[in-house]
Amino acid sequence: MTETTPLNDIISARIAEKGRITFAEFMATCLYEPGLGYYTSPGRKVGAEGDFYTSITVHGAFGRVIAREIAQMWRCMETPAGFTLVECGAGNGRLACDIMDFLAEREPTMYQGLQLVLVEQEPSLEAAQREMLAAHTNKLSWLSPDEFASGRFTFSGCLYSNELIDALPVHRVVMTSDGLKEIYVTCKDGGFAEEADEPSTPEIEAYLKRVGAELHPAQQAEVNLNAPEWLTAAVKALQQGFILTIDYGYTAPELYTPRRKLGTLLCYYRHQTEENPYLRLGLQDITTHVDFTTLMTCGEGLGLHNDWFGEQYRFMLSTGIIEEIEEIERSARPDEEKLRLRLTLKKLIMPEGGMGDTFKVLIQSKKVTTPRLLCQRRIGG
Ligand SMILES: C[S@@+](CC[C@H](N)C(=O)[O-])C[C@H]1O[C@@H](n2cnc3c(N)ncnc32)[C@H](O)[C@@H]1O
Q1: Distance, CA 59 to ligand 1 centroid (Å)?
Q2: How many CA atoms lie less than 13 Å away from 305 in the CB half-sphere?
Q3: What pLDDT was estimated at residue 81?
Q4: CATH: 3.30.300.350, 3.90.226.10, 3.40.50.12710, 3.30.450.40. Which one for 55-169+224-259+285-365?
Q5: Most CB atoms within 10 A, among 16, 186, 204, 325?
Q6: Which residues pair with 268 in a beta bridge?
Q7: Which residues of the chain have pLDDT under 50?
C-alpha cells in the first residue's frame, strides 16, 4: 500500500532542508499540517463513518455521567458563582453538548452561572461546535491552543478532555548498546526511513529518568513532551478547580515495561489498525498511549492534588452509569430499544474487550480544600 498524499512532498522537502526530522515533527505534520493533516483536513474522523470510535460516539450517557461529576465539583468548590468549563480537543462538540444538556436539565442553578470555553487545534470545527451547541449559545466562547497557553487566559472551574493527550505528537526512542537514541525520519530510495541517533533534546532522557523508565536493549518507546507542556499551561490558566483527563494509557511502569518492546504507536484508518505510520500521510490517525505517571508527577510539581486515578469502568460505575441505565429502564422506550441501549452502555464499562479498562480517568485539583468526588465513593457502598 503506497498511497501518496501531498504530505509526502511536504515532509520530503523538510527532510531535504534539515537532513532529517524528529518523529515528533513527522507526526505533528501528519496530524496538524493546516488543511492537510489528519485532524486539520475536512472529513469525518470519529464514529461509524470515521476511522475510530471514542466513548463519546458510543452513547450520550458518557457525557451525562461526566456531567454528574462536574456538578459535584461545582458543589465542593467554595466559589460556585463563576464556574467555567473548558474542553480541550473538543472535536465536533458532542461531549460538550451531552454535558451541557444534562447540566441545563438537572442542575439549573449551576447552569445559570456556567460558561463553556472550547479549545480546538482545528479552527474550522468551531462551526460544527456552534451548531451542536446551539441550545447553549450564550454560554460559549472559543480559544485557540496558543491563546489557551498564552498565560492571558485564566478561569476557575473544570478543564476536561477526552482523547486529547493520545493525539499529541511524540518523540520516539530506542535503547541501543551505545545508550538511548532518538528515532529520526529521513528519506531513502524514494520513501521514508528511520535512523537512530543522539536525542534531539536532553528533555527526553530527563523525562524517562523522572518516571523511572529503564528500557531494555532494542526496546522502543515514545516520549510525549507535549503532555507535560500542555499540563503546565493548563495549571497556569486554572485558578481554582479541577482537571479531568480521560484517555487510554497506563502508569509508567506498565507503559515502559520491556514486554512492550515496540512501544504503543498505532495508526487507525477506517476502523482498521495499522502499525506503519509512513502510509497514507494525513489520511490515517497516529496515536500513542498516555503516560499517566507523568501527568500525575508533573501535576504534583505544579501544585495539583491527584484526587483520583483509575479505569474508566470504575469511574463510570461510581459516578452514575447505573443511574443512567435505571433511567433508561424506567423510560417509555420500547423493550427492544432498552435492550439495545443496555448493550451499548456495556461497551463503556466492560473491563475486558470494551472501553472500560484501557481507558483511564485522572482527576486533579488546584486549591480545592475538600474535593469530595462521586468517583471517590466505593462502588456499591
Ligand atoms: C482524538 S481527537 C478527540 C476528539 C474528541 N475529544 C472525542 O473524543 O471524540 C483529538 C482532538 O484534539 C485536537 N487537538 C490536538 N491538539 C490540541 C491542542 N493542543 N489543544 C486543543 N485541541 C487539540 C485535535 O484537533 C482533535 O480534534
Answers
A1: 19
A2: 12
A3: 56
A4: 3.40.50.12710
A5: 204
A6: 273, 285
A7: 1
Q: How far apart are CA 242 and CA 157, in angstroms?
A: 6
Is 220:173 a contact under the CB 8 Å cutoff?
A: yes
User: Is ligand 1 within 6 A of the CB of residue 145?
Assistant: yes
Residues sharing a CB contact under 8 Å with residue 22, sequence separation 6 or more, in sequence order: 171, 182, 184, 185, 200
Q: How many other CB atoms are found less than 10 A from the CB of residue 365?
A: 25
Summarised one tens digit per residue, pLDDT across range 264-284 is: 999 998 878 999 999 999 999
Q: Residue 269 forms beta bridges with which residues? A: 272
DSSP 8-state class, residue 216: P
Spell out the domain ranges in the chain. Answer: 55-169+224-259+285-365
Contact 171, 212 (CB under 8 A): no
- C-beta 219 within 6 A of ligand 1: no
Give residue 96's identity as a one-letter amino acid code. Answer: A
What distance in angstroms lies between residue 162's CA and the mean position of ligand 1's atoms? 8
The residue whose C-alpha atom lies closest to atom 13 belonging to ligand 1 is 89
Q: Which residues contact 124 (CB under 8 A, 6 or more apart)?
A: 42
Rounded to the nearest whole angstrom, what is the distance from the C-alpha of residue 199 to the centroid of ligand 1? 27
How many A from CA of 39 to the centre of ligand 1? 8
The pLDDT of residue 51: 65
